[in-house]
Amino acid sequence: MTTILIADDAAFMRMRCGRMLADHGFTVVEAENGRDAVAKYQEHRPDAVLLDITMPELDGLGALRAIRDIDPDARVGMVTALGQQAVVVEALQAGARDFVVKPFQADRVLESVQKLLR
Amino acid sequence: MLESRPVDLPAAGAAGLAPMMRDGALRAAGALSEMSGRCIETRSISLRAVPLADLPLVAGDPERPVVAVHLGVQEPHGGHILLALSEQMALRLVDMLLAQPAGTTTSLDEMEVSALAETGNVAGAAFLTALADRARVILPPTPPLVFHEMCGAILQTLAAELALSEQRDAVVVETEFTCDDESVDVAFFLFPAPEMVRAVASGLVEGSDDACSRD
To answer: For A3-108, CATH number?
Structure first.
């Protein structure tokens, strides 16, 4: 079973993405902030991670760096409303493999997961 | 009575600020449309300076209960974004977001509040992206918070925050929206701190210098 970790402080977004991915046969693990995402990554070693950026405790860029420290091969995509050019560049330089700007069509998140798993 | 006046900015910054705010408002409306699945467009956009003491009046009757999503703009620039909805509009928007028949939502529990918070987050971030990319600065927002109380009380709190930076006036960018061509009771406010106004205006001035030097 392919496991996807979704980290977003909005329960609404976790529900929306989680249902869609579960409908496509993925096992979903949820985290509600960056610190929780790093802990869940350690615990579950998911096949791919979707990270929001603007989160309490530890933001998505901090979580991305921490996850890549644990596992340099981690497959992480950013799914965020924060689509400012400088932030996109920073995320890609920190090792994100994809960047999806909210709001998005459901297909775009599926595409991103498939891209991460390739 | 609410006192307001035009914003005093360096000439090049002031000239560039209005189209930038329009772009921000259009992006926020686009984000709201995408999330709600309805045609949401900007009805009006205004930019003015208001004495901090009058800030609680900028959204009309200060005793009107509203549901408001607040985002801060992180330091060093600073500022506040507020998406304010009437209670009825908030319930209607939740039904749109959760793809439910109109009238299904009658109260705001955890999931409903989260849906509204995310809507404010996406609209506010879209607005900030327009400003940040054009002025070539980074304007990251804080995570959204949802308040359900009297409009004037929320604005009074923001006025107190803005007063900490020793400003006497608040710059107010206000956008009103239509939904499927009808006016809706949703207002979007940006209250930039002085440092944010300076950074955005300077970015525009430098951008216009760059454009000249390429010619």
So the answer is: 3.40.50.2300
